[in-house]
Amino acid sequence: MKTRWREHEAVLITIIALIIIAGYIRALVVMSPEQMSAIRAAFAQHDVSFNYFTRILLPQIGCIIILWLAYRWINKGIIRQLTNSGKNYAVTLLMAVLQLLVICYVLGPGINFISYYSIPFGPINLVFYFPIGFGGHPQPFLNNFGGFQVGMFLVGLYLIYALFREITIRFIEKAPFKASYYILICNQATMTLVPFFALPIFTSVFKLVSGDIYYQGYFAFVLPALLIFITNTYGLFPRSEGKPLFRWQFAGPLLFTTFIYTFVFSIFLGPEWSWILVLCFWVAQVAIVTPLSWIDYRQRKGLILHLRGVEAALVKSNANLQFLRSQINPHFLFNALNTLYGTALIEGSKNTAEGIQKLGDMMRFMLHDNGMDFIPLEKEVEYLKNYISLQKLRTQLSKDIVIEEDISEADDQQAIAPMLLIPFVENAFKHGISLTEKSWIKIKLAFDAEHIFFEVRNTVHPSLQNDPEKDHSGIGLKNVQERLQLLYPGKHQFTYGKEGGEFVAKLTLNKINAVKRTVKMP
Hints:
five-stranded mixed β-sheet, 64% helix, three-stranded antiparallel β-sheet, alpha+beta
């Protein structure tokens, strides 16, 4: 799925340009002979030859076309070059600035020249006239830069908007998950704004509505209605799927958002503003827009719920797959078996049996509990201890390797996502242990009434050239961060990085009730 913001914007600008050009043509068609004679007399009074096509219609249409071409030049040429510049960004930036200066000159003095040629003696009474001159210099040939500042202002204002647009699009498309869902919302919003802005321009150009009350009510009612429609369809209704709608958890946010939108955009009412009118608009939004948005949501429910959930499930499944590959792979199993074999030769069967039992418990956990969204916290802690114990067997003969663990007893009434803590320890053993240099790993797991605190510290060693895992980072802490954003949104704090000669990873989680959250994934 692709973001269509730019395409929808281009469609809107093109529609507006066509509406204005159509307005110029309509003005000629509906012009009475008396009006045409008055215009002809005004030109004759100033000793200027007159032809409506060459003196008025074509210059007007030409100015609109110039504005449209400038818009296309900025978007298709300059902005595309800046976003795809690569290594030669300085040269691209310089060329972009030069092009923008040319555009500013065309939009300022250039259009002033055309408007002066169209009516060199000042404004006349036309049926429809769009102010095409920027700066309105009476004799632009006496000042070749008349209107240049106005052109720069317009271009600069649009560039600020375009920068906001590009940043927003990049943020949406690079979202770690639910990117398709955000793109769907963005496309729906921009597509809806096309007719929203085109309609009042059309009615104004063709003079279908007289008075300001129509436009005040239009922007004060229709604009918040569109925002309420999008908020309900993609926010409130999907979150309440499968739950009763007549409850405060749904009605409260619904009433609040509709009132906020209505109140904020009521500024367009101007002198007609009153609390009674605002409350009437609010009631209409709740009584009319909400049912219509519900009907639209029910028609597109499958797609909306699919895009809301499928990417989350995909990220979760991918993360779990990476956990499996990271923890149980041939390299790890061969190391574990070689460790158990060496231990059996040196100490007999006690440690060997213990190691085999721990490895069996770990594999059982991977096969059964790892398929759940959340598991009892004590099971995760048990797996963590087994993993550490098994790794200690591999490093127990080296006096330069120190492994410290401070793991508190877990509460069996609390839950956690499976294999959420292991990546920190796995990363520490993979990158923090050297058989030739002094190494240490310090693991601390603590709890309070509301939080889980986990910290892992390890030494930092350069990777060996013959290390079979040199180019494989396991699941990686970035993958953990992605999983945390998915499973603990706004309920975790996670930092990692080098501190002095150590690599430190810290995680704080809000506790979750184990009874409610130990659910098997489909």
